[in-house]
Design brief:
The structure holds two protein chains of two kinds. Chain A is of the alpha/beta class. Chain A is built from five helices and five strands. In chain B, strand 3 and strand 4 form a beta hairpin. The chains are: A alpha/beta, B alpha+beta. The interface between A and B is medium-sized, with 21 and 25 residues.
């Protein structure tokens, strides 16, 4: 399965990539803003999971989620963001995100979240 | 700026370093920020607007920046490069974002982070504001959090007084 990491921070992409490699996810793609995520998701039907930041230049993560869902793509999306208020979580879930991870997180948090989705993707 | 206003920032720094850097930090007594000499510290800055507004910045000596970002990604950095700049930006982003959640009942928006090298005098000139400095110590070195922050909402008693005056 392929995982798309969407974050404008190179360091955050590296952290998430490190966790994915520990979980033996071989195919990892990266996008640096929401628009790149929308384009990449449209071109790669084998993407099985998207990790999406919220605040990014060019296009925000929440707008990207809306566009991906508007295109009929049902790929699981985990929001991975500093936006931790309840109303933001609800907004993301309403837009079509499947789960939510608030920064700061430790690698165990993100690993647990990823394992849940990777297991359901395999079943 | 009320002293209790900075508590969410202190808690946020402690949580961010514990989770993202795997490093406990200790905070010292807050002081009013002084103009610096020409240091080459790395400063991550983020703006806050809404019911409270201001600036939050984290100021790392070079060695602390190298070690903090290195621990985040499990790599060793020898010099300041785009990864360090990016990592400091992400740290201030997380610190401010996490603090924002702790201001219950307020509507606060954050700007995208900016990272600069130099001293706080330049930032003071930009904002015309006084910064409060919170010194932190840790195994990855010392660093400072600089906060300039105020509520833009009128106090309740002031609102009531204005209301009574309008109705009299």
């Amino acid at each position: 399965m392929q995982v798309l990491i969407v974050d404008d921070s190179q360091i955050m992409r590296k952290i998430i990539t490190g966790v994915l490699k520990k979980l033996n996810v071989g195919k990892i793609m990266e996008a640096v803003n929401g628009q790149e995520a929308v384009d990449t998701a449209a071109k790669n039907s084998d993407i099985g999971l998207i990790m999406m930041d919220w605040n990014m230049p060019t296009m925000t993560g929440i707008d990207a989620v809306k566009k991906i869902r508007a295109a009929g793509n049902k790929v699981p999306i985990i929001m991975c963001t500093t936006e931790g208020e309840k109303e933001k979580v609800l907004e993301a879930l309403k837009a079509g995100a499947n789960d939510y991870l608030v920064k700061p997180f430790n690698p165990k948090d993100i690993q647990a979240k990823l394992e849940k989705f990777l297991a359901s993707a395999k079943s | 700026m009320k002293v209790e206003s900075i508590n969410p920032f202190i808690e946020s720094v402690i949580e961010t370093f514990k989770n993202m850097v795997d490093c406990p930090v200790k905070v010292g007594k807050p002081i009013v920020t002084k103009d610096d000499d020409d240091s080459d510290d790395i400063i991550g800055v983020i703006g806050m607007t809404g019911t409270s507004k201001g600036i939050v910045a984290v100021k790392f000596p070079v060695q602390t920046a190298l070690k903090s970002v290195g621990k985040m990604v499990g790599m060793e950095f020898k010099k300041i490069d785009p990864s360090i700049i990016d990592g400091v930006g992400e740290l201030i982003n997380i610190i401010a974002g996490n603090a924002k959640v702790k201001f219950e009942g307020q509507r606060i928006s954050l700007s995208l982070p900016t990272v600069v090298r130099g001293n706080m005098y330049k930032l003071n000139n930009l904002t015309g504001a006084v910064f409060l400095t919170l010194p932190f110590t840790s195994d990855v070195g010392s660093f400072e959090l600089l906060v300039s922050f105020k509520s833009t909402e009128e106090p309740a008693e002031k609102k009531e007084a204005a209301h009574a005056s309008a109705n009299s």
